[in-house]
């Protein structure tokens, strides 16, 4: 077993003893969200600024089914993945033809459209008020209302998705996506259907986002309007950048940092977004590559010092 | 008209610097708050209107010099992160200095009340804003089209390497461009203050609209940004007459549609 | 590879230490003898300006008792709900789990409150709320949540009936409604009550919470040629709306009704010209003629210069209601307090109040004011006169709360 795996497993086991299980769950959920985004951002070089479209859509659909049709948690998860992937297929198809700033703006604009639809469709989504009352039905005798049980479920799902992402980035697909990031023109010249691969990355990213969305809805028992807003889209991008978009584990670390900041610091100082903003600025000025990169550099320095 | 101002400023920045300036909305907000403070300080709206945008421009200069300068080689993601972080700092800074409560600010006495235009009764201040913003847009356009500096800026949008090869200090070009963009955002904010009132988050909506205007007009196309700004304003008013809730959403719908069909925007060249 | 292992373990250690030291609030818990009260007040978001006001009111009520009740110290904590459902529910759960809060007051937004109410039900904690949605004491009622504000029916009846008494010919009404739970409830009842007066609703537009650009809405309203414009919104939205309606010349020719206002805090932001022909419905106005109000207003004004509007008063009164519940139950056990609150009667700042045990709705007066023109103002805070109060309870046929449920 790789050392990083041991580390992750250790964190999973220890975390609910350091923080409340609900926050611990939130961290892993957000990490799944980040992993999905990073396939686009870090590996394919696509800054999708509308990931909450898939996160939120999946949350609403699964939430609705959970509330009114009493489906079980695994089915809900599957629905989330499906809705996430489908909406990503739609959005991605419209977006992958563009690049650069246009691409970013298009993902943002489509996100806003989805947001507006959710806002208007109050009979289903509750509009501004959100969709409360999302249950966590028990399955095979396991009561998911117990926060620790749910945490265990979330961590297992996270591990599954992490493993999945690992396989993807290490596969030929992963290499092709990196090639596209490095030099899109050449990748196309060599014979790869670049738009199609971008679309594939989009769909996978969407599937991950959808899973995260459903888990989130079940965690808090509510699908708030924010889950489909551009703020959430921005949050996952920033968290990933802070963690380090250059590595598989970056989004995980980013999730830790971001959730910690928004949960802990916010109770201490109402003006905590200032610190968040400062963190962003610092990362760009001094710590590009995020925490992962900074750590690598630190280790290198320490070793150089030793020798 | 205000949309045109914001769009013009942002287009300038994105065109010349090629940076998605997510702090543009925050600069707008700072302009509004500076207006309130300067008016309180000097007791005169007109003085405030002159000084506040200058303050924002200076802020822009500082930001560019200290921060943005280092980001030209960085990818869009970091530029986004930086400017977004900046917008957070500015918004929270506003709260710290001016408090989180919304502030009301009335227009100067001579511009209060309305004018009966026959088919509708229209507030004087809004008319004033339309006219002034229009003049500003015109002035900016004239500057860009007719003066040497303007020509340099437009050249900078087209081809940065060429401009620097011609011996012009590209760094100063960027700095001035950013400051000018900030100025436009600042004055838009100052003008808006009596219309919408102030709140620390007032920049967020404006930011989205500014990006739409830029996208519609074509990245780097300044005239396009002006036209797009006007178009969006009109479209919004039209939609509002029939389906008021959709008036903000329609902006994004239009943008999405245009970008899908004509990725370079309505007037873009590339 | 061993390098990886060392720094990895360092990483875990770092996370653990950081988390513990910098206080994910899971470590420090309230002393078991303390009674923990949570004030869920917004410091950010659309109601960022209301949160601090709520906080003042709640603090004042607690300090009146010396921060003690039943001989035990009270620990008062606040959390910023951000005027968002997701944030508010998370923070409430955190306060309940980590701080041991068993009594929650707030939030301010009706929509968010519905979500928080679900948390209260799930976590079995007492929840008091003041807002314009009828659902808390209606379709979403349950044993743990209580509504302090007047029922939107009561508000609608007070406003419409009394306005029509003064303006019997004003039959064409245009509504401007905030697009969430509070707006919808009040809109429904104003239309209901209006029917009995033969009012024709020539238009009803909804705007998002936090809207500041009202020119389109106002122009649409003007096009309908109404006799009256009614705003069903609050705070910053109401102020912005009122200003635009004035700027476009609709008022003062046409009367404007702010049907659910915060009173002082909104009125102080409007220039006297805008207040001409302005009628206001509110849950509390500072000239209310009750002994409790007089004391409260005096103390509040001494501390904060302005008299209190609806926001701080609601927080103040809700806290006093909760404290009265403790007194009556002689215990801080959640179920005992709930039972004590059911049927509780007290004379507070609004006058006589009674909590309906079957719906958890507080029956109490609602105020209807007429604002004064500048010439009639005796001092700079003399915005309005109370024209009438009304306390008509929601008729049984409308009551959507069929069963308040069990614990």
> DSSP helix count of chain C?
12
Helix content of chain C: 40-55%
Note the run of SSEs of chain A as H and E: HHHHHHEHHHHEHHHH
Say what the CATH topology of one domain in chain C is. Rossmann fold
Kindly report the spatial arrangement of strands forming the biggest sheet of chain C.
Answer: 8-7-9-10-11-15-16
The CATH architecture of one domain in chain C: 3-Layer(aba) Sandwich
Strands of the widest sheet of chain A, in order across it, are 1-2
Q: Runs of chain A with pLDDT <50, length 5+?
A: none
CATH level 1 name of one domain in chain C:
Alpha Beta
Q: Largest interface here, residues on each chain?
A: A-C, 41 and 47 residues
CATH level-4 homologous superfamily of one domain in chain C: Response regulator
Radius of gyration of chain C: 23 Å
- Morphology call of chain A: globular
User: Can you summarize the main beta sheet of chain C?
Assistant: 7 strands, mixed
Instruction: Specify the biggest β-sheet of chain A.
Output: 2 strands, antiparallel
Instruction: Give the termini distance of chain A in whole angstroms.
Output: 29 Å
- The low-confidence parts of chain C are 1-10, 19-28
* SSE class of chain C: alpha/beta
Rg over CA atoms of chain A: 19 Å
Structure description:
The complex is a heterotrimer of chains A (307), B (270) and C (407). A two-stranded antiparallel ribbon of chain A has the order 1-2. The two termini of chain A are 29 Å apart. By secondary structure, chain A is mainly alpha-helical. Chain A has one domain (3-229). Chain A is globular. Chain A has helices at residues 3-18, 21-43, 52-69, 73-95, 100-120, 122-125, 147-170, 172-182, 184-190, 194-220, 230-243, 250-268, 272-286, 290-306; strands at residues 131-132, 222-223. Chain A has 14 helices and 2 strands; from the N terminus they run H-H-H-H-H-H-E-H-H-H-H-E-H-H-H-H. Helix content of chain A is 78%, strand content 1%. Chain B has 270 residues and is mainly alpha-helical. Chain B has one domain (2-102, 110-200). Helices cover 74% and strands 2% of the residues of chain B. Chain B has a two-stranded antiparallel sheet. In chain B, helix 9 runs parallel beside helix 11. By secondary structure, chain C is an alpha/beta fold. Chain C has a domain at 152-283 and 365-397: Response regulator (Rossmann fold, 3-Layer(aba) Sandwich). Chain C is 40% helix and 20% strand. Chain C contains 12 helices and 16 strands. Chain C has a 7-stranded mixed β-sheet with strand order 8-7-9-10-11-15-16, with helices on both faces. A 6-stranded mixed β-sheet of chain C has the order 2-3-1-4-5-6, sandwiched between helices. Chain C has a 3-stranded antiparallel β-sheet with strand order 12-13-14. Chain C is globular. Chain C starts with a helix and ends in a 17-residue tail after the last strand. The A-C interface holds A 3-4, 6-7, 10-11, 14-15, 18-20, 22-23, 119, 122, 126-130, 132-133, 220-222, 224-227, 256, 260, 263-264, 266-268, 270, 273, 295, 299, 303 and C 1, 3-5, 7-9, 11-12, 15-16, 18-20, 22-26, 43-44, 79-80, 84-87, 89-91, 93-94, 97-98, 110-112, 114-115, 118-119, 122, 179-181, 208-209.
């Amino acid at each position: 077993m790789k050392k990083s795996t041991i580390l992750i497993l250790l964190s999973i086991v220890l975390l609910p003893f350091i923080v409340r299980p609900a926050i611990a769950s939130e961290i892993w959920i957000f990490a799944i969200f980040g992993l999905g985004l990073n396939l686009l951002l870090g590996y394919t070089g696509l800054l999708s600024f509308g990931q909450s479209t898939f996160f939120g859509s999946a949350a609403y659909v699964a939430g609705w089914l959970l509330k009114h049709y009493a489906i079980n948690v695994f089915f809900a998860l599957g629905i989330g993945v499906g809705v996430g992937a489908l909406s990503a297929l739609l959005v991605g198809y419209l977006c992958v033809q563009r690049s650069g700033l246009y691409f970013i703006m298009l993902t943002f604009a489509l996100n806003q459209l989805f947001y507006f639809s959710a806002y208007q469709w109050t009979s289903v989504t509750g509009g501004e008020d959100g969709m409360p009352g999302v249950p966590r039905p028990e399955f095979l005798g396991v009561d998911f209302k117990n926060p620790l049980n749910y945490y265990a479920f979330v961590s297992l799902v996270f591990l599954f998705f992490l493993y999945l992402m690992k396989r993807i980035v290490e596969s030929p697909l992963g290499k092709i996506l990196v090639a596209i990031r490095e030099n899109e023109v050449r990748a196309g010249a060599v014979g790869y259907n670049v738009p199609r691969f971008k679309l594939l990355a989009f769909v996978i990213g969407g599937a991950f986002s959808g899973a995260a969305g459903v888990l989130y809805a079940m965690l808090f028992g509510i699908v708030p309007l924010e889950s489909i807003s551009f703020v959430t889209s921005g949050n996952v991008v920033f968290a990933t950048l802070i963690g380090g978009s250059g590595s598989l584990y970056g989004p995980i670390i980013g999730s830790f940092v971001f959730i910690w900041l928004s949960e802990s610091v916010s109770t201490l100082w109402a003006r905590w977004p200032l610190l968040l903003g400062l963190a962003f600025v610092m990362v760009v000025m001094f710590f590009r590559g995020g925490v992962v990169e900074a750590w690598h550099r630190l280790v290198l320095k320490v070793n150089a010092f030793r020798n | 008209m205000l949309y045109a101002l914001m769009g013009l400023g942002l287009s300038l920045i994105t065109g010349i610097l090629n940076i998605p300036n997510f702090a543009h909305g925050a600069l707008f907000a700072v302009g509004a708050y500076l207006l309130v403070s300067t008016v309180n300080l000097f007791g005169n709206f007109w003085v405030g209107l002159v000084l506040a945008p200058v303050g924002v421009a200076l802020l822009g200069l500082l930001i560019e010099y200290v921060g943005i300068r280092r980001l030209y080689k960085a990818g869009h993601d970091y530029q986004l992160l930086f400017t977004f972080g900046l917008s957070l700092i500015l918004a929270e800074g506003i709260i710290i200095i001016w408090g989180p409560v919304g502030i009301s600010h009335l227009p100067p006495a001579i511009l209060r009340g309305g004018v009966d235009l026959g088919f509708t009764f229209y507030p004087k201040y809004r008319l004033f804003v339309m006219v002034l913003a229009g003049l500003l847009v015109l002035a900016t356009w004239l500057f860009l089209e007719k003066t040497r500096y303007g020509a340099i800026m437009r050249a900078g949008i087209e081809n940065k390497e060429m401009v620097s090869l011609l011996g012009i200090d590209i760094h100063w070009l960027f700095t001035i461009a950013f400051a000018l963009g900030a100025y436009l955002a600042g004055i838009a904010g100052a003008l808006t203050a009596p219309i919408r009132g102030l709140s620390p988050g007032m920049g967020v909506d404006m930011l989205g609209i500014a990006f739409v205007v830029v996208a519609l007009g074509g990245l780097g196309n300044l005239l396009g940004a002006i036209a797009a700004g006007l178009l969006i304003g009109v479209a919004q008013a039209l939609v509002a007459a029939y389906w008021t809730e959709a008036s903000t959403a329609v902006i994004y719908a239009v943008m999405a549609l245009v970008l899908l069909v004509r990725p370079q925007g309505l007037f873009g060249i590339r | 590879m061993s390098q990886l292992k060392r720094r990895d373990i360092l990483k875990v250690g770092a996370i653990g230490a950081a988390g513990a030291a910098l206080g994910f609030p899971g470590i420090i818990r309230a002393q078991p003898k303390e009674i923990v009260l949570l004030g869920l007040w917004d410091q950010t978001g659309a109601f960022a300006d209301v949160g601090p006001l709520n906080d003042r009111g709640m603090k004042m009520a607690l300090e009146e008792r010396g921060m003690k009740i039943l001989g035990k110290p009270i620990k008062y904590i606040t959390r910023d709900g951000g005027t968002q459902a997701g944030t508010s529910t998370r923070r409430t759960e955190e306060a309940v789990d980590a701080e041991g809060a068993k009594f929650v007051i707030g939030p301010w937004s009706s929509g968010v409150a519905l979500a928080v109410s679900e948390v209260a039900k799930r976590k079995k904690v007492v929840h008091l709320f003041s807002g314009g949605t009828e659902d808390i004491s209606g379709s979403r009622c349950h044993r743990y949540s209580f509504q302090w504000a007047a029922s939107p029916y009561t508000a609608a009846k007070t406003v419409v009936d009394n306005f029509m008494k003064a303006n019997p010919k004003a039959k064409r009404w245009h509504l401007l409604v905030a697009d969430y739970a509070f707006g919808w409830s009040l809109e429904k009842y104003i239309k209901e009550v209006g029917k009995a007066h033969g009012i024709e609703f020539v238009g009803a537009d909804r705007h998002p919470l936090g809207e500041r650009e009202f020119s389109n809405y106002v122009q649409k309203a003007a096009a309908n040629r109404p006799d009256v414009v009614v705003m069903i919104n609050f705070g910053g939205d109401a102020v912005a709306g009122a200003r635009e309606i004035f700027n476009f010349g609709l008022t003062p020719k046409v009367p404007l009704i702010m049907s659910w206002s915060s009173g002082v805090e909104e009125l102080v932001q409007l220039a006297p010209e805008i207040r001409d022909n302005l009628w206001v419905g509110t849950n509390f106005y500072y000239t209310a003629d009750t002994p409790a109000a007089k004391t409260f207003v005096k103390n509040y004004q001494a501390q904060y210069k302005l008299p209190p509007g609806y926001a701080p008063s609601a927080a103040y009164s809700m806290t006093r209601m909760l404290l009265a519940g403790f007194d009556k139950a002689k215990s801080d056990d959640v179920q005992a307090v709930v039972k004590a609150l059911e049927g509780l009667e007290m004379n507070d700042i609004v006058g006589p109040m009674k909590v309906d045990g079957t719906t958890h709705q507080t029956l109490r007066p609602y105020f209807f004011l007429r604002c004064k023109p500048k010439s009639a103002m005796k001092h700079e805070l003399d915005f309005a006169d109370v024209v009438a109060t009304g306390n008509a309870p929601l008729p049984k046929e409308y009551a959507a709360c069929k069963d308040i449920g069990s614990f």
